[in-house]
Structure formats: C-alpha cells, structure tokens
Amino acid sequence: MTSNNSTEYTSVTTTSHMDQQRVEPIKTYRQIITGKIANLSSFAVGTCIGWTSPIFPKLEKPDETLLSHVIKSSSEEAAWIGSLLTVGALVAPFVAGPLADRIGRKWTLLSSAIFFIIAYVLLLIAGEVWVMYVARIIQGFGIGFVMTAQPMYIGEISSDEYRGALGSFMQLYLVVGVLYVYAIGPFVSYAALQWCCLVIPIIFAIGFFFMPESPHHFINKGRHTDAKVALKNLRGRTSIGVAPEMNSIRTTLEENNREKKSLADLFKNRGNIKALVICVGLIVFQQLSGINVVLFNAQTIFEDANTGLDPAISTILIGVVQVVACGLTPLIVERLGRKPILAVSCDDISNIAWLPVASLLIYMLLYCLGLGPLPWAITGEMFSSDIKSVASPIVASVCWTLGFLTTRFYPNLNSLGPHVAFFLFGGCTALGFLFTLFVVLETKGLSLQEIQIKLNKNRRMGRSANNHCRNCGNEEEKQYGSSSSVLVNNFDTEKAEVSWFLAILNTTYGPDECKCQGFKAFCNKLG
Hints:
By secondary structure, the chain is mainly alpha-helical. The protein has helices at 2-23, 28-38, 40-50, 52-59, 76-91, 93-103, 105-125, 129-157, 163-184, 190-208, 215-220, 224-235, 239-256, 263-266, 270-287, 291-305, 311-336, 338-352, 360-371, 374-382, 385-414, 418-438, 448-456, 459-471, 474-481, 484-490, 495-508, 516-526.
C-alpha cells in the first residue's frame, strides 16, 4: 500500500514538473537587456571605425591637435592612420579565441574595454604621428576581441527564436557608434571628440560587469550550478523550467568535448569545413563590398564629389541611413530568414555600387539590412561550441586582412579614378549574391544542435528517415521510437550523426512516448 502511494506520488510530482516545464514562459526581456548591454562593445567599435572620417580634416589644421606637423588626408601618413586599425584587429582574434575558452566569453569581451580606453587616452595626448599609429593598433586589438568574443557570447546566451535578432544587434550598435562620431566630430574640437569616445567603453565596462557568463562556458568548466543560475537569470525561469535546456546544452557539450579540438580538427569534420566556407565566404564579400573605404573616408569622399551639400551633413545622413537599416534587420531576420536578406543585399549593392556618390545612401541602406549584420550573426551560430574558439579567430582575421588591404590601397585605386574602386566593389557583391544563393545555409528557426545536424547531415540518413516515417504504422513507431539504439540502427547512420537529434528527442518525449513522429517532423524541418 505504501509502495503504491509512493509510486502514485512520484508520478503526480513528475507530471507536475513536466507541466511546469511546458507552461513556464521565457521572460525575453532579460536576454534582450543582456544583449543590448553586451553590444555597447559594438558601439565602441563603431566609434573607432568612424573616427577617421571627422578626424582627417582636423589633422590638416595646425591648431587642432598636439601634433608637430599637419597631416594631409591624401598622404601616406593618413593612409596608415586609417589602415593600422585593421592590423590590430587581425592579430587580436588569435589571442581572444583561446582566452574566451580559458576565462570565459564574458571576461574576454569585457577586457576589450581596456584597449579602447588606453587607445583614446593616447590619441588625446598624441604629440607625434607614431603615437597615433600605436593608438590605432590598440583600438584594433579591442575590435578584434569584440568581433571574436561577442558573437560567441550572444550565440550562447540567446534562445533559439531570438538568436538571429540579437546577433543582428552587433551591426546596429556598431553603426550607431559610427553615427555618434559622424554627428559630433565635425562640430567639436579634436580633444573633445576623444573625450566623447572615451566615455563609451567606460559605460560598457560598468554595465557588462554585472551580466551573466555564458551557460555553455560554465558547463564546459564543470560548473553546473553556476550554469543553472546564469540560465535562470537569462530566461527568467525556475530550476525546473530551465532543466530541459540545461540537459540539451550538457548533452551537446559532452559530445563536443570528448576530445580537445585543435586547428587540425577544424578540417577533419565535413560540417566544420562547410561552416567555415560559409562564414569566411560571407565575410570576404562583406569586406570586398568596400564598406570600410566608405566608413573611413566618408567626409573626404563627399568633399571630393562637390555635391553642393555640406560634407559633414552628407556624412551624418549616411550614418542615419545605417542606423535605420540595421534597426529593421532584427525585426525581419527571423521572419524572412538569413539567406533571402543576404541575397537581396548583395544583388542590389552590385547594381548600384558603380553609380555616383549620391547612391552611397542606397548602398549603405542595403548593406546594413543584410551584408553588414548577418555574416556575424551566422558566425555566432554556425560552429559547435568545442570548435568555435578555433574557427572564430580565422573568420575575424580574414575580415580584417581584407579590411587592411581595401583601406590601405584605396588611395592608389582612387588615383585612377573613383569609379575604378567602386566598379570592383560592385563586381564582388555580384559574386556574393551567387555565393549566398548556392552555398549559404538557412538557419532560421533552428537550434544550435539542429544547425549542426544540418551541416553534418548524410543524404542517405535523410532519405531513409523520411521513407520510414511515411510508411511505418503506429505499432512500428512505438517499437522504433522506444529505443535510441534501435533508432540509430534502423535509420542506417552513424550514432555520432544523430546524437544531437537524440538529445532533443529525449528532452521532448517521455520514455513511453513514440518518438518516430518527432523524428519525421525534425527531418522535414531540416529539408
């Protein structure tokens, strides 16, 4: 009698817990607030990128700075001031990636503020041009840390349905930082602009200090209690409410971390190679669209164009268009998907990039809707957590290598005529359209685990699974769905390739529930 009562009580308790898991809503404002504060680092990146546009005209005035001589915007010194930022950003990811695994995504991202603060102090007191060179390289280090750690952090703290939107915040905050400098720079002194930029990383450091670490990092370090606390804070749920997600993350990481991953391991797995090709390809076409040339030299470009409008006002208009476009991206990316937006962005940029300077506004609108934010959002979700710290530095370094080449040698191309550079940029984005259409993987609505299955999916597995699901009856569904080992053998594939899926099934269905219909729905979702 006592045994029966105990069994009945356990059953009721278990049922109650399952009901609580199903009805307990996610408090989305928590991850949104965390994402916004984390993206203040992107705001700081924007101030560094837009800094040269209002500064170059000031460097030509002897009374504006503490420099011993004036610097013409067309000089070699100005070209180095602009391009050395990308050198620091190129090197930094190879430090930031391993550091993100060792001390965590949060503390690696937070440390970027140190670089920004030091750089702006140096720019404030610079009396020689070499000090500016050093400051710009240090700014680049800060940017490299942000571009490496921030997509990791956002990708791991976001729930599946908001990951794309939160990932798009990176570009939004970056262009707000650019607009901030564009709007203030022409109307204040050189020193005042440095102070205005210096305050941003300070605010970021104070606010982000109180944000939670990535639950993935805590679980990787065996700190499961800390991971649960972080996940509860991010989701606004109880321990019972976050249990399925905790189990899913733990299963995923255990599968990933059976062996320590190295650079060589990145190229041993077909899914990793495919993810790297997609992410690097998108970054290549992003940079070869000429975006850094426009951002670094906006005011000078408008001055040379003699449009009749104040160059400072024209530059501010570009900044406003960027912000509006990037503000729209988080609203549409989860509705339309990454791939269609990227394709439209590349195609239309290629059609207008060769037109006169007035078309820069349209160019910027299209860039900020797709080609600007989405490559970084996709990078944050495309790699499994065990290889992410190896792959992310490669993607970021490709970005800044091309950024250096385009900004350093743009004056040489410009000497042949402004149309030469923009014809080349337009041709590159046309190729980017084809790349998006035929190579890029759509990740709309997929969890991180589902993305990995899709990247590693065996075509034979997909056909076998779908044929079985269409043809089997209820009794067979129950038979095959009740055992993970039978499921693996029945679908004729390696266990490693369906381990992600099994983790999802086991957190969705009870031990006596049929999993076959879930498998059918899952395979249909993967296409």
